[in-house]
Design goal:
The chain starts with a helix and ends in a 9-residue tail after the last helix. The chain has one helix at about 1-15. It is mostly helical. It has one domain (about 1-25). The chain has 1 helix and no strands.
Length: about 25
Amino acid sequence: MVAELHRRMLLILRTHKFIPGSPLP
């Protein structure tokens, strides 16, 4: 499902802090 993939990507980005200026919750 697309939502699951998107959620996983956000989680990875948050964990690795790849984008410090990203509007993540």
